[in-house]
Amino acid sequence: MKILMITPFYYPIIGGSESQIENLSLKLNKMGLSTDIVTFNFNESIKPVPFSKVEKINGLKVIKISAFNFLPTLLHHNKINFMVNFVPKGLTKILKEYDILHFHNETDLSFPFFSYKIYKPKVFHFRCLNVTYPIFKRNFVCRRLLGKIANVYIAQSRYVSSLLLDLGIPEGKIEVIPNAIDVSIFKPEGEKVDNRLLYVGRIEEYKGLHVLLKSLRLVRVPVQLLIIGPMVGEAYYHKKIMTLVAELNNKTSHKVVYLGPKKSRELLKYYQSASVVVMPSLSESFGNVILESLACETPVIASSVGGIPEIINSYENGILVPPNNEVKLAEAIQYLLNDEYIRRRLGRCGRKLVIEKFSLEVTTQKLLSMYNRLLEN
């Protein structure tokens, strides 16, 4: 069986979604399924490059297609653009070489749009529907297109599945397959650093970092907060965050350090050494950070939004707090930092959960079963 993972963004843009694609592809190859990746060719500055090439990246064949904007603003609402890029005619020949076409990421519909007449089993994997849902909801054309581009639609959580149903995707075409973690890589090691908090995620308003920073004003014990993630989105928000960081460092006993973006496996030592990981999102489809943290036996405090409550059972493997509530977040931080026994218990239960429900082995078996059903039909 030959699988083609098709994503608008991959290297050099690498985030949670791209890491998932890489990990799934590597695991499927180990299982004997020939799995390659197609993506657009962008340079380090995220600018489209007008030529195609094939590279070997981390053991995977990556076909980079020349990219330039064909319809630069198919949709625009608030801060989100839906892009459609020109796709070279030669792509058709590539697509026909594979048994399954597995599309990822609904912020760019170029590949599924231009492969509409390729009669192969198609899978569409949603990666950020918590953000893109309002745009599809308001635009009939894109909603209509979305409903015709695949045989199966993968939702990361039951929450995402409910959004798909509301967009008109038939229930019989929706598969709930959560994200997965390689638990042989993300595992506990070394000692925890007392009172070290960790935030991992984009520096973007819906991720709620400002709520975490404001909550620290109410935390009595001095903490070290490490912030990891790229600054994306609006410049005004980045300025707001850096102002809050400076205020905490200058006026409180806390120490806040911004470390910039890190690749997935570079994060490992930070997950392993943190006392608590905090995910204060205002909106979230799922939450890879939660899985990576729990796999390292580091407890998580997270907002009770989107698909997060499908991972965290409060006071069993983490703590859920109301979104945008700095008081409740501060109380949860103080509670965990005050009790090492609770932190260790939540961490152990968290790793057990990830192994049982969110490991690569579990997820790839679900994908394989789905692929086999598609080919049989």
The main sheet comes to: 8 strands, mixed
Could you name the ranges where pLDDT drops below 50 across 5 or more consecutive residues?
Answer: 70-84
Through-space gap between termini: 15 Å
Shape: globular
* CATH class category of the largest domain: Alpha Beta
Fraction of residues in β-strands: 15-25%
Q: Give the overall average pLDDT.
A: 89
Tally of discrete structural domains = 2
Provide structural commentary.
There is one protein chain. This protein is an alpha/beta fold and 377 residues long. The chain has two domains: 2-180 and 359-376, Glycogen Phosphorylase B (Rossmann fold, 3-Layer(aba) Sandwich), CATH 3.40.50.2000; 196-357, Rossmann fold. The chain is built from 13 helices and 16 strands. It has an eight-stranded mixed β-sheet with strand order 3-4-2-1-7-8-9-10. A six-stranded parallel β-sheet has the order 13-12-11-14-15-16, sandwiched between helices. Helix 1 packs across helix 13 (360-376) and helix 7 packs across helix 11. Residues 70-84 have low confidence and may be disordered.
Task: Put the structure in a nutshell.
This protein is an alpha/beta fold and 377 residues long. Helix content is 36%, strand content 22%.
Keywords:
single chain, 377 residues, alpha/beta, Rossmann fold, 2 domains, 6-stranded parallel sheet, 13 helices, 22% strand, globular
